[in-house]
Amino acid sequence: MSKNAGINRRDFLKTAAAGAAVAVTPAVAPAKAPAKASKTPPAPMSREVELGAPRPAAEILTEERSGSDFMVDVIKSLGIEYVCSNPGSSFRGLQESIINYGGNKNPEFLTCTHEELSVGMAHGYAKIEGKPLAVFAHGTVGLQHAAMAVYNAYCDRVPVIVIGGNILDATKRMPPVEWAHSVQDAAAMLRDYTKWDDCPVSLTHFAESAVRAYKLAMTPPCMPVVLIADGELQENPIPADAKLSVPSMVLPAPPRGDSGAVVEAARLLVAAENPLIVVDRTIHSAEGMAQLVELAETLQAAVGDRGGRMNFPNRHVLNQTRRGYEAVSHADVILALEVNDLWGTLHSFRDQMHRTSELIPKPGVKCISIGAGGQIYKSNYQDFQRYSEVDLDIAGDAQATLPSLIEAVKKQIDAGRKSALQARGARLAEARQQALQADREAATYAWDASPISTARLCAEVWTQIKGEDWSLLSEPFFYSGWPKKLWTFDKYHQFIGDSGGYGVGYGAPAAAGAALANRKYGRLSVCIQPDGDLMYGPGILWTEAHHHIPLLTVMHNNRAYHQEVMQVQIMADRHSRGVDRAWIGTTIDDPAINYAKLAQSFGVYAEGPISDPKDLAPALRRAIAVVKKGEPALVDVHTQPR
Ligand SMILES: Cc1ncc(C[n+]2csc(CCOP(=O)(O)OP(=O)(O)O)c2C)c(N)n1
Ligand SMILES: [Mg+2]
Asked: For the residues of 373-401, what is the DSSP string, one character each?
């Protein structure tokens, strides 16, 4: 029914018998009580019906409130702002309740063109907002599409609430489609990479499990959770005698490191000659970032940032990330805060051909690990990385443990030690300055090249955004990390890390989800978007246009799956067969994709392709003007490989 028809669907259901009869007969009296099932069941939806055989008389389906209305009450009680979803009949009850009963606000239903994009959006949103949004996924097939993105969020320790549809009672499934989309155990396919799931069989059970799921998702280590909303439970009327209430939700205080172990960690750090703090998926708020700065400054310790989150200001004099190898090799005490791949931090694994490695730190180095991220692993998926020996292992969320660690460190520093620490800090600042200068010089190589160098691209974007309250929502790894070398990152919302599971296709939807979260704060969201990643789900551009998500997408269009070009080159080199055919199967060219036209077809303002660096600044300015008006914009830039 068109929204101009003057009557909404709920009113219609309350007052109409059904279907065509409404057009010729006056509306029947509204049903007061939940309708009983018709004695004559409707004919199952068969291919014949679809092909135009006469439809059986429709049932009166009118009811006041269905189970899904109550489910919406529960979802609202959790403060969930959005539901990202590709529609599917297995959750049609919930969808209708969200948009009508719930007023399509908190949560608002956002249309996604693929379930992987729904979860990718949830992933990016949570990294900015610090809380989950919900994803509705169709029974079986929608959950299958969602799976890889759920895996990324699991590896990245990010909370996502996935609500899947299903019809458990086999006698209620309409043939043939509902059978194909129903399962005995709908969450099974995601169980290996989610924290918890449940398949509630009553509304009270749904309410309790939804609250439990939210708490589990949000308690470090944060992870996705899955709730299956049975179709019958959604659609059946709420029994008149049902005593339903929404359980209250209080988030648990995060697990913190043991106080005795924290004091011992402080003792080792204060006594160290060259302590190194390594961070990865460590910081989850602006407050935590300030605490990490305080710890580093109190110790005058080097900080190496693996970039899983916005952990530490990149321009801080103690930030020694660009001197990573030297920092690890000089350290006598290493403090790893939520570092999942400690083995990879302590070893160089450069020789990809023979897969050999070498331990970097000097003998006798002491390693301290603080983290909650490693407290839950599943057996099958191997994202836990190689086992690494440590001297002191403290289970607890690193950020939540920082205040007690800072306090313990301060207690142990006397005046004499303080001046030694200051001298160390000055040496680190000097070394840092040299690394910065080297980066600036490296950026000038191929400055005027066409296709455009990634350094030039990032420098041009920086010139346009540095006066704004900006937020970079893409993985600099794909463009040689230039923003971290050339820009100034000093606010928590300026960076969101990477995918976690290295599943490509994360970048574009995560940027859209993070931009959605940034929207209410008026931030300028920017994504430097690799071409291969976007092509997993270009429909995300349509979602941005449809829901007015302001995001500047600057294409890093190297017309290739360039990481894979390099992998094939390594193999070809190994056999001395020359690297000139490594492009076969690894390029996205011939024909080159016109991303500006693609974006325009989805209703997104777009320019390009741009190959001359001189054309970049004006195009970026025009696109930013569009984004500042609240809409997405894309600039397609033909770039050098990396
Ligand atoms: C789902 C998935 N499929 C394949 C890969 C292998 N892979 C890793 S990087 C990459 C290339 C990505 O291309 P693009 O996004 O254009 O970045 P570029 O390498 O060109 O910088 C691919 C295909 C992956 N990591 N994830
Ligand atoms: Mg590419």
From this structure: GGG---SS--TT-S----SEEEES-HHHH
